[in-house]
């Protein structure tokens, strides 16, 4: 029981491992793949944002150049007209005008403010090529509005910082534009945290976070950079839930496997136990199939065959004999069949001294003289002749040649003829079989079946019969079902036969009645009623 339980537990553990492991491995691989794709996608997004930043910056430069192109007197009517054109023509430019001595001078938006002393603080940054930049520059007209202002040689343009980060993105990923010399933020998409974005920029995007990915891009021509942030899809984020789901699935699978294994094992165990019980309680039946002289139709003996009915079902001898052999029960079974046969047929055998019963034995019975000793003991004082008890052994049971040869010789010298059963189905060569000194060969049904059939298969039977003759033994043909087979076999010198044409295997009473009926009628063998 403990062995069974531990086997079931092992199956459950195996089921869990077999179910959960591949799932976890695939999730891990998928997760890695998703992470790689997302990072690549985010880097592409950073490149795109960088292009946008450069585009806006260069537009600012182009607008200043355009303002200076006409060399109009700053703040003259022509100049202001020109500035209005620039504002109109350049999409990202919100104002354009003149400044000097720390003051705004004029623009189409501010008007003429030279006399009003509208202060312009010093720029935050100056580029190598002479551009001045004011970040988050408050517009003199409104406290709410902060622009990026780019100036050069007394002229400036104001740009809405949102233009820098205004990239179409359905996922709404955060962008920050960075001045790479100052390491400070130029523009930030709405809702983004400036400290976080700056930190990510300084780490070149390599921020340890389970939730977010970061990527950076740098301009090749200007001191500009971009950092972007996107949400990370982790298949492992909900790993406890995931594991719980798959583990319960694994347990269910394992339990199913375990249950299946349990059923199988217990069926096998109970099957074996039932056979053991049937043998020890002698509930195995023995039936007898007549063996007839083919030329005279006289029944010369019978073969004892074991029958087992388990819960109303007849189990094939091929199955339970193999089971008995596997589990060391075969010797008790052989004894049982022999004892039963002797009990059933002793009277008949005594009344017909030439009549015999043949008993099937297995390899195990031929390893020692045990069964021979049992036969001798049982026959003592019964008045039966040893030749009335015959032994059938298949070629397979001869495998252990040296031991078997001795036992077979002992059976024969004790007067029990020995038969090779199922002749032709084993692998033994004629030369090998000749070393055994056998009395009778039983040609297997599979060869007898081919007799008087189509040409291709009927070449086998004569060959087998010839081999049997060569061994110098008498022959019994097994499984005769048609009268043509009898004619053929007699022609080929086969003396004996057994099969449904004459009779199926029968219980003692049926056999006795069958024998009686034949004797009364003196009739030749008739096909058995099926
Ligand atoms: P086997 O010793 O060659 O027995 C002959 C088998 O052929 C029997 O099958 C018998 O019922 C069947 N048979 C005989 N004539 C005909 C026929 O005309 N047509 C057909 N279709 N079948 C026929 P069974 O009783 O099922 O036994 C199968 C095998 O199981 C036997 O083959 C024998 O090897 C083994 N066996 C049966 N009883 C015992 C036993 O007590 N001890 C051992 N060791 N083996 C046994
Ligand atoms: Mg047999
Ligand atoms: Mg046979």
TrEMBL record:
Pfam families: CSS-motif, EAL. InterPro entries: CSS-motif_dom, Cyclic-di-GMP_PDE-like, EAL_dom, EAL_sf. Residues 268-519 form the EAL domain. The chain crosses the membrane at residues 6-30, 239-262. Keywords: c-di-GMP, Cell membrane, Hydrolase, Membrane, Transmembrane, Transmembrane helix. The keyword Ubl conjugation does not apply. It is an enzyme of class 3 (hydrolase). The keyword Isomerase does not apply. Its EC number is 3.1.4.52. Its main location: membrane. Gene3D superfamilies: EAL domain. PANTHER family: CYCLIC DI-GMP PHOSPHODIESTERASE PDED-RELATED, CYCLIC DI-GMP PHOSPHODIESTERASE PDEF. This is cyclic-guanylate-specific phosphodiesterase.
